[in-house]
Specification:
The complex is a heterodimer of chains A (495) and B (318). Chain A has 495 residues and is mainly alpha-helical. Chain A has 2 domains: 8-186, no CATH class; 194-494, no CATH class. Helix content of chain A is 71%, strand content 0%. Chain A has helices at residues 8-23, 28-44, 48-69, 74-96, 98-111, 129-144, 154-162, 164-167, 175-183, 193-223, 230-261, 279-285, 288-299, 309-327, 331-360, 362-370, 375-401, 405-416, 430-452, 463-480. By secondary structure, chain B is α/β, with parallel strands linked by helices. Chain B folds into 2 domains: 1-39; 43-315, Rossmann fold, CATH 3.40.50. Chain B contains 13 helices and 5 strands. Chain B has helices at 2-35, 50-63, 79-84, 87-93, 110-125, 144-154, 157-163, 171-182, 184-187, 219-224, 230-245, 268-272, 302-315; strands at 71-77, 98-104, 129-134, 249-254, 279-281. Chain B is elongated and about 90 Å long. The model of chain B is unreliable at 192-201 (pLDDT under 50). Classes of the chains: A mainly alpha (495), B alpha/beta (318). Chains A and B meet through α1, α10 and α20 of A and α1 and α8 of B.
Chain lengths: 495, 318
């Protein structure tokens, strides 16, 4: 198990690492060796086997990258790339999907009367393998496409694969950007300390004060949904929707903040996704690095929107089902991906219909767009889109969180089909207090970030006010830190 | 760009220093409040939050001005004492010259009772009189599970902080305790005023009215032949010495049993060292050998508790 972001040990190790790292700033090569050691130490602390798994992947991808960078003919290069992609998928598959497929095959065989025990591998999922596998595949494709020269320095490449802030849950940054930063000479004076500090504080606040509290409150519901009333079920489903945003965006904020302290800028992974007015926009704001990966390395090679509308819809469905399966093993994740695929397909069909209608009624459209009289209806239309998008996303998260499909269906029945008792009164439910608290804080932060168009929300405040805000945040973090006497991992660390 | 970043970073450092100064001020205020005994025991006792609850309830009771001139009595022990010592009728027995609190804590063995006496009762609650109810032979048996329970309880965060003993903990636990020890903000981070949820007149007594119905466990023979745990005996004597050094008046009471006196000779040397003034042996007391006074094999019910109170009352002279 890697050292978690919210453990004391992590904070101590990072502080010590920063001192070592910056003391070597005049010697970039040594600095990168030190960084690699830090990454491996944090990743494989107490679990050396993780180091072996990531090292094998690193060596394999380094070699294929070097081969792809050489002047071979197209056919050979294609072959190398195919070997690379198949190798990486197989590597991920063995650890992540082997047992799942083995069980499914066994189930299928028992369906036709053949009782065969599934062959199961007794191995754990190496944390972060889903993320760094996508990253190295992208790197090899980039080299193949000549978007980036193959990295000749093994240490640089190893740091790129194992860079600890992003290792266990992303963001899956573009390889040219990250590699260039690792290779560049860095100066302590260039650190964006202000931005790093704000991201760290906000990230820890979101994780410890909001996400972890919600995690503990809602866990019993997903084990026994029938113990809860309809009102509670609805609140809890929304709470998970908030939790997953807060938890994951907190991870990204902390990762970006720490990375800045090491002089490496990571990409923004979340951009107020719940303020989206349609599902397509949602995916441009949610887990941006993953969406971009699927767009660049799967959607476009599949033909994207260049092969007709029907093919576009099929491509979208494929991408979302694969994305669901990438997230986790099990039917629930596939259904979650499938649902998002369906939402996007409906949205695209609807958009096409509206565009055609607009084309036929251009005069009316221009009148509505330019007339102030329609300003409020336009805003209401936007809010309606926001509401519907939130409801759809909220519904799909049920499958993402539920342990299995049966439980997910029970949750839907409990929450959406009122059967007799409504359960607790909405206002007196203890979950309502948490919902209110979480909503106020999350919405405030999201709206400020949306308006400012940046994640560092305190920058424009006077330093005294800023100091008071920081003190409040630190008190809240200290108040809730380790309150449940145990490390609560980030949701996406499980993938 | 670089100049702008330097300015930004300078402003940020000023803001962070402001935040640290605010935190330092809050920390200072908390230190002062705690030094002057204005702060309650932090609710950081893991699954034993009944302990800080009792500490705080007892502290509030004793600091109430209407009880200023009364004799402050604490009865400590395990669940048997928790169910047997009735502070209301005890105070009535002495015409309310006393104000007593039942500090009996379920699952609290001799080692943990000794810890509570040393670090909580003597230092924080400062009663005028201590009634320490010990269970013979259970408290002195070489009982593996019981000893493990002791160790677990003494590893509770606040128990470790009070004892200033961080041994046997991993890095995360040590760091957590370090923060608990060093930062008052961290120590007092959760102020759950549990008294809101508990009857105001409740003073630590757990009452059972029903009579004993069966439950013949046949433990007596096993108990009387159990191996003696010498360390528990030493802890008991050390604590008595500590109480005497603190000039605190006390009474050691042995628990009654429903059928008969349970003989356990290894403990005799412990009680022989006590003066008769400080010792009341209720083990096998005739008035309490009666199944109808118990609600289960070794816990008194309400009616038994009244007789128990009278017996203690007769022994004391307030």
């Amino acid at each position: 198990m890697p050292i978690g972001f919210t453990s004391y040990l992590f904070i101590v190790v990072v502080l010590v690492s920063l001192v070592i790292y910056w003391s070597l700033s005049s010697k970039p090569k040594k600095q990168n060796i030190a960084l690699l050691c830090i990454c491996y130490f944090i990743y494989a602390y107490g679990a050396i086997w993780l180091l072996i798994v990531i090292f094998i992947s690193t060596v394999f991808n380094y070699i294929t990258g070097r081969l792809l960078g050489k002047e071979y003919d197209d056919k050979t290069k294609k072959l190398i790339l195919t070997i690379n992609i198949l190798g990486n998928v197989a590597y991920l598959g063995v650890f992540k999907y082997f047992n799942f497929f083995s069980e499914q095959i066994s189930n299928l065989l028992s369906f036709i009367g053949l009782n065969v025990q599934p062959f199961l591998l007794g191995i754990l999922l190496p944390i972060g393998i889903s993320f760094y596998t996508l990253q190295v595949i992208a790197y090899n494709i980039d080299v193949y496409r000549k978007d980036i020269p193959a990295t000749t320095n093994f240490i640089t490449f190893a740091v790129f694969v194992a860079y600890f802030p992003k290792l266990t849950a992303g963001p899956i940054d573009k390889s040219p950007i990250i590699i260039a930063q690792i290779e560049s000479e860095k100066s302590f004076k260039d650190i964006n300390f202000s931005g790093a500090w704000q991201l760290l504080l906000l990230g820890y606040f979101k994780k410890i004060v909001i996400a972890d509290i919600i995690t503990h409150q809602i866990a019993p519901f997903y084990e026994n949904p029938l113990d809860f009333g309809t009102t509670e079920a609805r609140i809890i489903i929304i709470l998970f929707t908030i939790q997953i945003l807060v938890d994951f965006s907190a991870y990204s904020d902390i990762a970006r903040g720490i990375s800045r302290l090491f002089g490496i800028e990571l990409m923004i992974n979340f951009n107020q996704p719940y303020l989206s007015t349609n599902v397509q926009e949602f995916w441009r704001r949610w887990h941006i690095s993953l969406s971009e990966w699927f767009r660049d390395y799967m959607y476009k090679p599949l033909g994207g929107n260049r092969k007709g509308f029907s093919r576009l819809l099929l491509n979208l469905m494929i991408i979302f089902v694969v994305s669901g399966f990438w997230h986790g093993v099990g039917l629930t994740f596939i259904i979650w991906g499938f649902l998002h695929g369906v939402f996007i397909v409906i949205y695209r069909i609807n958009t096409l219909a509206i565009d055609r209608w607009k084309g036929n009624h251009q005069e009316f459209v221009t009148k509505v767009n330019n007339n102030n009289k329609y300003k409020i209806p336009r805003k209401i239309y936007g809010l309606l889109g926001l509401f519907i998008t939130f409801q759809l996303v909220n519904f799909a998260w049920i499958f993402f969180r539920a342990p299995d499909v049966e439980t997910a269906l029970l949750i839907i029945e409990r929450a959406y089909f009122i059967k007799g008792d409504l359960g607790l009164n909405f206002w007196t439910s203890s979950f309502f207090g948490i919902l209110l608290f979480a909503c106020i804080i999350v919405l405030t932060v999201e709206i400020i970030q949306y308006k400012l168009d940046r994640h560092e929300i305190f920058t424009d405040l006077h330093w005294v006010i800023r100091g008071i805000c920081y003190a409040l945040l630190i008190i809240m973090i200290l108040t809730f830190f380790n309150i449940f006497l145990g490390y609560e991992p980030f949701i996406y660390e499980g993938f | 760009m670089n100049k702008k970043r330097v300015t930004q970073n300078k402003t940020e450092i000023k803001a962070v220093l402001t935040a640290l100064m605010i935190l330092a001020c809050i920390e200072g205020v908390l230190w002062i409040l705690e030094t002057n005994n204005f702060l309650d025991e932090p609710y950081h006792w893991g699954n034993r939050n009944d302990i800080p609850f009792k500490i705080n309830q007892c502290k509030h009771l004793f600091s109430n001005p209407i009880h200023r001139d009364k004799i402050k009595v604490i009865a400590i022990g395990d669940s048997k004492s928790e169910r047997a010592f009735d502070p209301y009728t005890f105070d009535e027995y002495f015409n309310n010259k006393t104000i007593s609190y039942n500090f009996g804590i379920s699952g609290c063995s001799i080692r943990f009772q000794a810890f509570l006496i040393e670090y909580i009762i003597l230092t924080k609650l400062k009663p005028d009189f201590l009634i320490w109810v010990v269970d013979v032979p259970n408290d002195f048996k070489d009982h593996e599970n019981q000893i493990q329970q002791d160790i677990d309880n003494l590893n509770l965060p606040m128990a470790s902080v009070h004892r200033n003993d961080f041994t046997g903990l991993n890095f995360e636990e040590k760091f957590d305790l370090f923060l608990l020890n060093m930062l008052k903000i961290y120590q007092h981070r959760i102020y759950l005023d549990l008294k809101w949820f508990i009857d105001e007149y409740h003073r630590g007594l757990v009452i059972a009215y029903e009579q004993y119905e069966g439950d013949n466990e046949g433990l007596h023979d096993e108990n009387s032949t159990a191996r003696f745990h010498k360390e528990s005996g030493d802890i008991f004597l050390d604590t008595i010495e500590l109480i005497e050094n603190e000039d605190l008046d006390y009474l050691i009471v042995t628990n009654p049993h429903r059928d008969t006196r349970i003989l356990y000779p290894p403990t005799d040397y412990l009680f022989n060292q006590l003066s008769s003034k400080n010792f009341l042996d209720l083990n096998g007391n005739e008035e309490l050998v009666n199944n109808s006074l118990y609600y289960n094999s070794n816990h008194l019910n309400y009616y038994g508790a009244q007789i128990y109170k009278n017996l203690i009352g007769k022994k004391l002279d307030f």
